[in-house]
Design goal:
Length: about 290
């Protein structure tokens, strides 16, 4: 069962921490004996540069599996490709989770996708907004704009930090880029935008999927993770432009996500010959759906 916050926090930070701990404790009764408890070591801070950077340092200092760091304000967070992700005070959820997986390293590629499934599941259940995933791990509002970003980093031998940033109540003028949005702008009911409740819902969903994935030895198919991802992913069936490492650009139709978490793209050359490319890493733009 989650404990009270480890280190002293004051004012609003302490209140949010207490609320999250209470909500997690309510849902932890179905945990199997000895199961890893995500959030058992939970810390909430008023402001930081980057929760991922801070938790990465803690991981190298020996922080345990399941440690969670939450910031009410994040001033210099990073997304994929080192993109900046800042969160104004009180308008977003910024958190990072430390895992020390026991499954073979070959299956770790599913961890950012697992995180995406957990975030989508939690946001749909809590707010009713029909969010989806853009491969590999951007969370999109129904209008296709991004309202949450995820970042996975191997930070030490056997340690992975997973960062999550969700825009909750940002107004249009506060958005960092035109392609961004928030749950408020996506017309989520205001009474469903409680930050502690949303954070706890994400952590509960993450815990369920992480436990299932671990029990299956990291097998995304056996754990049900791959099937859940395919249902949540709006990239599938869309025409896409993928910028690959080295600035190589691939255009085609996204048709699947394989057992290794790679995006399967079919593209035609010379009008007739169809090639199948399996993309392990790349920046995806949705062009249109067929």
């Amino acid at each position: 069962m989650p404990s009270r916050p480890e280190s002293p926090v004051s004012g609003r930070s302490a209140s949010v921490a207490d609320d999250i701990v209470a909500l997690l404790a309510e849902a932890d009764g179905d945990a199997a004996p000895g199961a890893a408890a995500i959030g058992e070591h939970l810390r909430v801070v008023a402001s930081t540069g980057s929760t991922n950077a801070d938790l990465s340092t803690a991981a190298r200092d020996g922080a345990p599996h399941g440690s969670v760091l939450i910031a009410l304000e994040q001033t210099s967070g990073r997304g994929r490709l080192d993109r900046q992700w800042a969160s104004p005070a009180g308008a977003s959820v910024s958190m990072s989770v430390l895992l020390r997986p026991t499954v073979p390293r070959a299956h770790w590629a599913w961890l950012p996708l697992l995180t995406g499934v957990a975030v989508v599941e939690a946001l749909r259940a809590t707010t009713g907004v029909a969010v989806t995933l853009k491969w590999p791990n951007d969370v999109l509002a129904p209008d296709g704009r991004k309202l949450a970003g995820l970042l996975a980093e191997v930070v030490a031998p056997g340690a992975v930090v997973l960062g999550v940033g969700v825009n909750i109540t940002l107004a249009e003028a506060e958005l960092p880029v035109p392609q961004a949005t928030s749950l408020l702008l996506a017309e989520a009911p205001v009474d469903r935008l409680d930050r502690a409740a949303l954070t706890a819902a994400v952590l509960r969903a993450f815990t369920r999927w992480e436990r299932a994935w671990e029990r299956a030895g990291g097998d995304a198919a056996a754990s049900g993770l791959r099937a859940a991802y395919l249902v949540a992913c709006s990239t599938l069936g869309a025409d896409v432009r993928v910028t690959l490492p080295g600035d190589v650009v691939l255009e085609g139709r996204a048709t699947d996500v394989d057992d290794d978490g790679r995006l399967v793209v079919e593209h035609a050359e010379d009008g007739d010959v169809v090639h199948v490319v399996r993309v392990a890493a790349g920046d995806v733009v949705h062009l249109r759906r067929r």
